[in-house]
Amino acid sequence: MTILYESPWLLAIDKPAGLSVEQSPHHPSVEAWAAAYLAAQTSKPFLGIIHRLDRPVSGVLLLAKKKAALKHLNEQFARREVQKTYLALVENALPAPSGTLVHWLRKDLPHKKALVFNQSVKDAVECRLDYQFKERVGEYSLLEIQLHTGKFHQIRAQLAAIGCPILGDEKYGATTPYPHNTIALHAWQLTFRNPLNQKTLTVRSTLLLQP
After folding, report:
1. Which CATH class is domain 85-185?
2. Catalytic residue among 54, 108, 123, 130
3. Is 138 buried (19+), middle (13-18) or exposed (0-12) by CB count in 10 A?
């Protein structure tokens, strides 16, 4: 596991794709690794999960080492003050080189996926992201995505809704496989206020998407 940033309050890691965030009897997890890492440093470690990434997604993940840090960062996420930048490789032609996607999302719990609609419907919540075409990678498009809401499978479902599913994401209609049963979605960068000193802090992943 690569540590991108560490302080007495926070731990930021580069999560590999295929790794669960929360402890699971079925998969290796960040939580189990981090608990062991912190236990080697102190006899009474605290570990708080601030946010989550889907198991097939890679990239920057923040963990709290103090309760005060967990509370502070949870509030920043809740107020949408954290700038979340993703990279994605997608199939098919984009409707435009850049744009804002606004949909309404509803969880389909029996099928463990998100349903998106072009207008408000019952039990659905609004979700929004900006995307920008960066370059062609073979026959695919590399996108930079600014995520303004953090809903269940939001990026995956919204990109599929415009006909551009993420590579490897068969659940949302992709036909191109991706290595090790993961998907080509990467949490590239997080910008937030450091709870220790209130200064803006940006943590960027060192991992790269591969076509």
Report:
1. alpha beta
2. 54
3. exposed
Does 54 participate in catalysis according to the annotation?
yes
Which SS3 state, helix, strand or coil, does residue 25 take? Answer: coil
The whole model's pTM is what? Answer: 0.94
pLDDT confidence of residue 209 = 81
What's the average model confidence in pLDDT over 147-171?
Answer: 96
188's CB contacts (< 8 A; 6+ apart) are: 59, 60, 85, 86, 87, 144, 204, 205
CATH architecture of 2-82: 2-Layer Sandwich (3.30)
CA distances from 84 to 26, 41, 118, 140, 191 (A): 28, 30, 23, 23, 7
Positive or negative, the CA dihedral 99, 100, 102, 107 is positive
